[in-house]
Design a protein that fits this description.
Elements: H1 13-16, H2 19-33, H3 38-49, H4 54-59, H5 61-80, H6 83-113
């Protein structure tokens, strides 16, 4: 955090259960800490500062309501997209995933060499920052998560 100490991956293992998920959770918290939703920003910043544990944050009724509201918004936007918008968003998501993999490989190499991790300002913005219905991107769910 710009204003002080930030938790590290090890401190998130009680919720994340393994290092890859802890790294992903840390990235998500960094993204939420600068996001548009004030309740999610408050929650993410609290966890990142160590003011509350991830377990406390994810079991707090106000924070979980904010998380589910955000997920519902993403779902609705995905359902309202045209097939062309879904294909375009899927392509952007693929590009974003590749950039993320490249970043993770660099981080893994940096950890081996003892270099510092990226700052929140260096984090990729993600596919949801692109245009489209509700300004959300990403690929349309398939398989068991598709239209009923």
């Amino acid at each position: 955090m710009p204003d002080g100490r930030e938790v590290d991956q090890a401190e998130l293992l009680d919720v994340a259960k393994d290092e890859d998920r802890a790294r992903s959770l840390l990235r998500a918290l960094r993204t939420l800490s600068d996001g548009p939703d004030p309740k999610l920003r408050e929650m993410a910043r609290g966890v990142l500062r160590g003011d509350l544990t991830a377990q406390q944050a994810f079991t707090d009724p106000e924070y979980t309501a904010a998380l589910f509201a955000g997920a519902a918004k993403v779902r609705r936007a995905g359902e309202q997209r045209s097939d062309a918008e879904a294909r375009e968003a899927g392509e952007r998501f693929g590009e974003w995933q590749q950039a993320r993999r490249t970043e993770e490989e660099r981080e893994d190499q940096g950890e081996d060499e003892g270099t510092s991790r990226t700052t929140p300002e260096q984090q990729p913005t993600g596919p949801w920052r692109h245009s489209g219905p509700g300004a959300l991107g990403g690929s349309r769910p398939t398989g068991g998560f598709g239209h009923r």
